[in-house]
Amino acid sequence: xxxxxxxYIYCRVIFEENGKSYYYLTDDEExxxxxxxxxxxxxxxxxxxxxxxxxxxxxxxxxxxxxxxxKKIIHKxxxxxxxxxxxxxxxxxxxxxxxxxxxxxxxxxNLGVQAYRRGDYEIAxxxxxxxxxxxxxxxxxxxGYIYAYGxxxxxxxxxxxxxxxxxxxxxxxxxSYKVGDAxxxxxxxxxxxxxxxxxxxxxxxxxxxxxxxxxSDIYYRLALCYHQGAGVVPDDMxxxxxxxxxxxxxxxxxxxxxxNYEELKRKIENLREKILLNLNHVDNKTKIRLxxxxxxxxDNVDAIVNAANTSLLGGGGVDGAIHRVAGPLLLKxxxxxxxxxxxxxxxxxxxxxxxxxxxxxxxxxxxxxxTDESQLxxxxxxxxxxxxxxxxxxxxxxxxxxxxxxxxxVVEATKIxxxxxxxxxQDNPGDFDLVEFILFDDSTYNVYLKETGSNxxxx
Length: 459
Description:
This protein has helices at 79-97, 101-117, 121-133, 137-148, 157-169, 173-185, 193-206, 215-228, 236-256, 261-279, 317-326, 328-335, 373-390, 410-427, 442-452, and strands at residues 8-14, 21-26, 36-41, 46-58, 75-76, 287-292, 303-308, 345-349, 357-362, 395-398, 434-439, 456-458. It is of the alpha/beta class. The chain has four domains: 8-77, no CATH class; 78-190, Tetratricopeptide repeat domain (Serine Threonine Protein Phosphatase 5, Tetratricopeptide repeat); 207-282; 287-458, 3-Layer(aba) Sandwich (Leucine Aminopeptidase, subunit E, domain 1). It is elongated, with a radius of gyration of 32 Å.
């Protein structure tokens, strides 16, 4: 210690766990009694929190303890220091008091949950990791959520999948349905509806009395698989059984204030309506309807059609809007499709859109009408309907393909769109319940209305 300092400030501090007092030096003249400070403890100098009970100043000639044997206060305690060290004390106490690894893992899990709820995600992650290493399946599942949502920084789908699988193997229902989601949507792993359905079934089998808050999610997913024939033979009676269970379970979600209750409730109600329509379908009539709306908000159909470009990686107009709302997983799936030729169509999931599917078709650029534009535009509608038919999609919505930046004259494009849809529906009676033309502005809507003669037609 340098002897050029005129006064030395001694702080007497106490530690909560033993109540004993110790002396530390400080350079901070603003420190006062009752302040919390971070101090070094032990031979290794690890940090702990102490409370100042007395502050005294001494000259070099009157110091009560040798300067070279007194440690210095590091700094006043910040909130982050307090939480970190407070949790370390709590963890040490739990380790001393826990009688076995199972009890310790539960206590560590609870500490992680407390840290997560107050937003200390890094601390929560550390507790979950310790608990997961002791075999706690819920801690492993919670780690999966931390990585899936990027709570500690960047989203990491690989680590999320790893921890969800670990939780599933240890019998955790929540982990199993998240593995099912990964296969259903192709998040990190390749999309596989058979495996998705298998894990949803496993998740149902693993449900316990403590899993009330995830029952509606699992039942909804099983209903969706049966309705769509995803990994299982299509069965709307089976789908109805599960959607009714989901609807019943959703009442509990409302009581506990589940964060995604409203969104899940809407999905359950929409799917139940589709299932009942299928079960009650008694005629072969198809409705063709005009609607002035934003296609990204349409939620009464199974699929919307995207007027895409050949890369399928997003662009302007309708294409860009659909990608923005659907989110990054849509782009990820589109990258696996290797583009699309003009006039052809490919299908993906809808992700954050309020529909299950997006059918991407590439319209022609208008070059005066002498380069097969009309045949290619007709192929867009025809191939989109054919793909929908193959996927058991009964309700589909189209934008006005190619009439935006591709410059196709609206009147000519409207005649082709309506003629192709009309002929396809008539040639395939009973395969579609609803075909909508979603038109963004009044001028385009009026052109369609003039061509069709009505905003609702039954064929």
